[in-house]
Amino acid sequence: MGMTIAEKILAAHAGADTVTSGQYVWCKVDATSGHRLPELEEFGVDRVWDKDKVFMVDDHQAPPPTIAAANKVKELRRLIKKYDITNFFEYGRGGILHQVFAENGMYAPGELVAQCDSHSTAGGVFNACVTNANLDAVHVLAFGELWFRVPESVRVILNGTLPSWCVGKDVILKVASELGTDYGLYRSVEYTGPVASQMTMAQRWTVTNMGVEVGAKFAIFEGDDKTDAFLKDRVTRPYEHVTADPDASYVAEYEFDLSDLTPMVARPGDPGNGVPVESVKSERVKVDQAFLGSCTNARLEDLEVAARILKGRKVHPDVRMLVSPSSQEVFGEALKAGYLETLLDAGALVEHSTCGPCYGGHLGVLGDHETCISSSNRNFTGRMGSPLSHVWLSSPATVAASAIAGEIADPREYL
Amino acid sequence: METVKSGRIWKFGDHISTDFMMPGHRVLANPGISPEEAAKFCMEANRPGWAVSEVQAGDILVAGKNFGCGSSRNGSQSLKALGLSVVLAESVSRIHLRNAVNTGLPTLVAPGITAFVEEGQRIEVNIVTGTVENLDTGGMLQAEAWEEGTPPYELLMAGGLDAFMRAKLKERGLVSS
Ligand code: SF4
Predict the structure, then answer these.
(1) What 3-state DSSP class applies to A213?
(2) Do A181 and B15 touch (CB under 8 A)?
């Protein structure tokens, strides 16, 4: 019987001809992150299995807001030196891990990566199996191996033509609103269909980034020339695109026609609470903060669309708009393209690339009863600060439109 | 590891995220915080006071669908620090389940569990066979057990990742003692 993309990749890394869902396998892993170096040292191991395959950046509390955080990253730097880690990205040359690691060639089609951080599913945009390892990432650091339960695969077929002003975020909020936030639970979700091909890499990336929001172990797109164009000069090792066999078996198949899609927002509480923006217009949801940032939606084209909407306009007097590009590389590109200048002129606060506001850590934490419209991926209670605050999720265009309006607004009104 | 656990039930709903178990602004923003300190903030947003004055060592947590969704932070560390002996849920997020195995906190997927017990009742769980008995009603339920010989089974039986790793490092000659 044929295999899905995830089955092929896992089989190849387990040294097996085939694998089937439900099977447990030990796999060779192509890369990991350095979050568990302290544990490796505690175990008394004095080398990593492959120093070129360990990637690390400090992004969550970056740069450190407290002495404790500063000491933590100081300790990290010591470990990076001790273990001679090649791919470490200091402040100014870093940003948010998922973006920075990709920019520096961590992921390629057909590869298997297990790294710390739940949004690791993002890397599946490169036609690879990329997922979270947490404590057990130390096992990868030591042995270059990890166990996996071969997941069942799900196929999501995106049909039609994506309307203008709709991007990857609107697609995933729509899909999650219809299928719920557990259709991917334990599973590998493969996205395919005409819209998947039409989407830019950045748009697909938002979809795979939010793979974990639908419970997925892997969220994967097929590889094409857009994939290769991104990877050019970043990945020099050979790779091949992996496609599913025609007779591969999927535990579920879902089809969506996206031609009538309109911009979406997810109400506070769960990323599956998506509704069309136009349906909340009458509620006049006032926003205190508009956040354009995170690993989900702060890439160059996200900043571009926000700049296009905000050009010649002003952020509403009662709103603070925070902009944090997904990496310092993106920051530089956006600077050179003039997008950041436009955003500054509109009255936005442009921060360096950091996780801070996205997880309620620092650099933009919400107070009691405040409301934020955010281009990030999570709107759980207390995610961005006070448990009494509210987070609505949307595309960057909707964030920008809402920043101008002072309330949740439809970007199509800002053409 | 002891394979039969009995205790009193605390019941939670669907989609209990790890943000509930380990609030970012309390724990992540506070590096160096001990597991015991961090555990005091567990479920602070959805059940204030529970972690500090209600839950007792040996208690059992029952939850609905998609338990441990969201961030990869190790919510099981807090649940274990609170002394919970077992967690049963209708379904569990993959990351959370893996964290639980690595932490050595038995966490079982038990379809039907929310209708099977009321908060405050006592149950007995065999974490190897997956049988669950409601000690108040006498009802029986079958949870999904880890198959013997699989990596998660071995990890759980070893008491978690730490012990498993130490044995393997020694076996492969990566550490001296
Ligand atoms: S930007 Fe947000 S979601 Fe992305 S890695 Fe950072 S904290 Fe996590």
Answers:
(1) helix
(2) yes
Query: Residue B135 has which token pair?
Result: 């000690």
- The residue of chain A with its CA nearest to that of B75 is A134
Query: Is 80 exceeded by the pLDDT of residue B31?
Result: no
Q: Of A401, A202, A393, A376, give the one whose Cα is nearest residue A311.
A: A401
Q: Please compute the mean of the pLDDT values over residues A290-318 and round it to a whole number.
A: 98
- Report helix, strand or coil for B29: coil
Structure tokens at A303: 């900043």
Res. A415: pLDDT tops 80 = no
CB contacts of A143 in chain B (<8 Å) are: 168, 172
Q: Tell me the domain boundaries of chain B.
A: 4-171
Return the axis-axis angle of helices A201-209 and A168-179, rounded to nearest 10°. 30
Asked if A95 and A327 touch (Cβ cutoff 8 Å), the reply is: yes
Rounded Cα distance, A362 and A357, in Å = 6
- Write out residues 178-237 of A within 8 Å (CB-CB) of B: 181-182, 185-186, 212, 215, 217
- A169 contacts A155 by C-beta, under 8 angstroms: no
CB-nearest partner of B71 from A72, A118, A149: A118
**Average pLDDT value over all residues in chain B:** 93
Residue A182 with chain B: CB contacts under 8 Å? 65-66, 69, 91
pLDDT digits (tens, 9 = 90+) for B55-83: 999 999 999 999 999 888 899 999 999 99
Q: What is the mean pLDDT of residues B16-21?
A: 94
Give me the sign of the Cα torsion angle B43, B44, B45, B49.
Answer: positive
CB B68 within 8 A of CB B92: yes
User: In CATH, which superfamily holds the domain spanning B4-171?
Assistant: Aconitase, domain 4 (3.20.19.10)
pLDDT at B177: 59
How far off is chain A from B94, nearest CA to CA, in Å? 5
**CB contact at 8 A, A361 and B25:** yes
Nearest to B90 by CA among A17, A308, A182: A182
* pLDDT of A57 above 80: yes
